[in-house]
Design brief:
single chain, alpha+beta, Heat Shock Protein 90, five-stranded mixed beta sheet, two-stranded antiparallel ribbon, 35% helix
């Protein structure tokens, strides 16, 4: 039927446009590295904002969010850091196409020098094979099939670039069949290294 063929074509075009828009947003976040607009940011609010922007209520993914009480503020570009966390959440969702639970945790690492805040995202997906771990931050590296609707492998690259531009680092722990944990390690705000001190 020609109408259903036209409808399918329009739907595919709409999906391609949406993916192109998402890709453009990722490129913009990736390329804005030098233009940081830093402010003191409450980590709990930052994490909640990232989750709300990605995981819809009633979807087949659930996010368990744990933010340590009294966690130190971050002195970061809130929009960029929110994009970094969203990239990790989207990556976790893509690792579990049938749905599943994602853990998003934030806690202080006060004994590090300088003191750090750790934001981690853990999924229960297929995991990353050891031979791919050293490539996961390369632009366009992806274990997804070409032509997949899932994206082009920029999520971890964007998150890594944003965190590095903020003086932080990204660590990844993964085992095939066991899922993946990605940790963002960020220096706390110099104004208030620990809330209440």
């Amino acid at each position: 039927d020609s109408q259903s063929t036209e409808y399918q074509f329009l739907r595919e075009a709409e999906d391609a446009t949406r993916r192109a828009g998402q890709l453009t947003q990722r490129f913009l976040a990736f390329s804005r590295g030098a233009a940081l607009v830093r402010e003191n940011i409450d980590v709990g609010r930052l994490v909640q904002e990232a989750i709300q922007g990605v995981v819809a209520e009633g979807s087949h993914w659930s996010v368990q969010c744990e933010v340590q009480d009294g966690i130190a503020d971050l002195h970061v570009d809130g929009a960029q850091m929110c994009q970094a966390i969203r990239s990790l959440l989207l990556n976790a969702m893509e690792a579990m196409p049938q749905g599943g639970r994602i853990r998003d945790q934030a806690r202080d690492l006060p004994l590090k020098e300088p003191p750090l805040v750790q934001i981690s995202v853990t999924d229960t997906g297929a995991g990353i094979p050891p031979e791919h771990l050293d490539k996961i931050f390369d632009p366009y590296f992806s274990t997804k099939e070409r032509g997949s609707e899932k994206g082009m492998g920029l999520g971890l690259t964007v998150a890594h670039a944003i965190v590095t531009n903020h003086g932080g680092k990204v660590e990844v722990e993964s085992s095939p069949g066991q899922g993946t944990t990605v940790r963002l390690l960020l220096p706390v705000s110099k104004d208030r290294e620990v809330k209440g001190s």
